[in-house]
Amino acid sequence: MVPLDIPRLTIGDRVQHELLVRERDDKTTKAGDPFVILKLGNATGQLTVNVWKEFVPLMEGVRPGQVVQVIGTVESYRGAKQLKLTTAPRVVAHSAANADEFLPRVSVSIDELWSRVDAWRAEMKGPLRAAVDLFFVDDVFRERFARAPGATKGHHAMIGGLLLHSCEVANIARASVQTMRGNVPLVTAGALLHDIGKVESYSVDLAGFDYTQSGQLVGHIVLGSLMLDERLRTLPAGTVSEAQRLELHHFVQSHHGIPEFGAAVRPMTLEAELLHYADQSSAKGNDFNEAMTDSEIFSSEDAEFSSRRSWRLERRVWRRAHGWD
To answer: How far is the C-alpha of 163 from the C-alpha of 48, rounded, in Å?
Structure first.
C-alpha cells in the first residue's frame, strides 16, 4: 500500500492505512465518559484522532510504539484536521513494522549533507582537522550521527535531523563569523562538534525518539564533552594543546547560551557567541518551517492564519498569500 501523505489530506478524505501510535492520552469528558486522544503518524507527518466512548473498550492494546490500521474520514475539529474513526484501530504485528516507514525523516539527501561536512573538513588544518576527524571519519559514528534526531520532540525531531541541524548551524555560523571577521574553520568545527552528545542521548525505535538512560541522567552537553575528551586522549601527545582542547569543550559547553537553558558557561569568544545564535536560528527556523505545513494548526491548505498556536513557537503563525517576485 502507498504510504499515506498526511500533509496533503483534506476534509472528507477517506483513510484506511497503517500508522504509528506516537502518543496516547486517556481523558474523561465533563459528563464522565472516557475518551482517548491518539497522535498517529508516519514518515510524512502526524494526525490526531479522538476515540470516543464506543471504541474505548477496544483500545486496551493500543499504545505508543504500536502500529495500527485505522479506518475513518478526515474532518475539522476546533479548527484543525483530525481523523474520525468508523471502527476501532487494529494493532499490527510488531515484527511486520519498519521504524523507517513510520518515523519522520529529513527530506534533504543525507549524501548531500555529508558532502558539505567533508568539504568543510577539507578546509581545516592541523589540530583542528585532527580533532574533527576523530568523529567524522569514523564510519560507525557517521552512521549513528546521520540517523539521530535533533531532538526527541521539537526542532529537527526526524531521522537525519541531527545531521541536518548541524549543517544548518555550520552554514549560519560560517556566514556570521565571516561577516564579523572571525575564524571560519574554527566555528565550523564548533558547529560539527556542538551536538555530538545527542548520538548517545537519544534513542530511535518504533516508539519514536526518546532519551537514553545517559541522556536522562547526564544530558547531551555533558555527554558531548565526555565523548570529545575520550577521543582527544587517543591523539599523540601535543597534537592538540591544552588551550585548544579547552576551546573545543567551550563550544560544546556554551552553545545553549545561558545556564537557564542548559549552558555550563556563557560564550566567551566571538566564535562561541555566534555559534550559539546559529544554533538558535536553525532551531527556530525549523519550528517556523514545520508550523507552516502543520495540518493540526491550519484548518485548510489555503488558510492564511493558523487557527491555533504552535506549541513550539507559542504563537499563531501567518502564511502570506502574496508573493514578492
So the answer is: 28
**Beta pairing partners, 72:** 15, 85
d(CA 99, CA 20): 9
Q: Which structural domain, as residue segments, surrounds residue 210?
A: 104-288
Same domain (yes/no): 96, 152: no
Four-CA torsion 125, 129, 131, 135, nearest 10 degrees: 180
Supply the DSSP symbol for 260.
G
Q: What is the distance between the alpha carbons of residues 42 and 101, in angstroms, rounded to a whole number?
A: 6
Residue 121, all three cell numbers: 573538513
CA angle, residues 172, 175, 177, in degrees to nearest 5: 105
**What pTM was computed for the model?**
0.84
pLDDT value, residue 281: 98
Phi, psi of 107 (to 5 degrees): -90, -15
User: Which residues of the chain are modeled with pLDDT < 50?
Assistant: none
Q: Cβ-count burial of 111 within 10 angstroms (0-12 exposed, 13-18 middle, 19+ buried)?
A: exposed
25: CATH: 2.40.50.140
